[in-house]
Amino acid sequence: MTTSAAAHPGAEGATAGGGSVIDRLVEANQRYAAEFTDPGMDARPVLKVAVVACMDARLDLHAALGLKLGDCHTIRNAGGVVTDDVIRSLTISQRKLGTRSIVLIHHTGCGLEAITEDFRTELEMEVGQRPSWAVEAFKDVDQDVRQSMQRVRTSPFLLHTDDVRGFVFDVKTGLLREVDPA
Ligand SMILES: [Zn+2]
User: Fold this and answer.
1) Which residues are listed for Zn(2+) binding in this entry (predicted)?
2) Does residue 12 lie in a domain region?
3) Which of 40, 55, 113, 168 has the fewest C-beta atoms lying within 10 Å of its C-beta?
4) Which residues line ion ligand 1, judged by CB < 5 Å?
């Protein structure tokens, strides 16, 4: 660990220091831990909210939503799609860790708009095994947000489905646009 390293791990090229990208992350963690003080929180999110969002690197959820450490659960995957595994996390979030509200966030320029379910066939041709999971590709981001809201609202496992809202994050402006659930 060098004292001249940039305070922000993303400020320079990932391998500018010569090590692997993961080495760089581990060094950043050492600097983080040096400044870290135990906030003394338990595991229940302060704002009682879970955010389901795409894994897209341009979406800084905490900054974009004014969230602080301990405020929320963040559940992310390719597309921010409500899969069975997302329902699993939301069920634990609500039933064991006290969250009540759910925010769903897709975004402009998502990679899932550029592929189709044919991706599964391509994989099968290449590796000889068809994935059990759906690609969950979509063409209309608003419609996919609506479908995600519907999947959450109709899940029998969730305790709280009255405060569920869906949005599209614009990666050019940083603004959220709410999607009408109708
Ligand atoms: Zn995306």
Assistant:
1) 54, 56, 107, 110
2) yes
3) 40
4) 54, 56, 110
What is the tens place of the pLDDT at every residue in 113-143?
999 999 999 999 999 999 999 999 999 999 9
Kindly tell me if the per-residue pLDDT of 13 is higher than 60.
Answer: no
Residues 10 and 56 occupy one common structural domain: no
pLDDT digits (tens, 9 = 90+) for 150-176: 999 999 999 999 999 999 999 999 999
* Edge-to-edge strand list for the sheet holding 101-107: 72-77, 49-54, 101-107, 164-169, 176-179
72 labeled part of a ligand binding site:
no
Q: Tell me the whole-structure pTM to 2 decimals.
A: 0.88
Cα distance between residue 162 and residue 21, in whole Å: 42
**C-alpha of residue 38 to centroid of ligand 1, in Å:** 33
Compute the distance from residue 18 Cα to the ligand 1 centre, in Å: 30
Q: Do 131 and 80 share a structural domain?
A: yes
Residues 96 and 157 in one domain: yes
pLDDT of residue 3: 40
Same domain as 114, residue 171:
yes
Domains identified in the chain, total number:
2
Predicted local confidence at residue 4, as pLDDT? 41
- Does some domain include residue 122? yes
Q: Check whether residue 148 and residue 65 sit in a common domain.
A: yes
Taking Cα atoms as reference points, which of 93, 108, 90, 100 lies closest to residue 144? Answer: 108
What is the model's pLDDT at position 8?
53
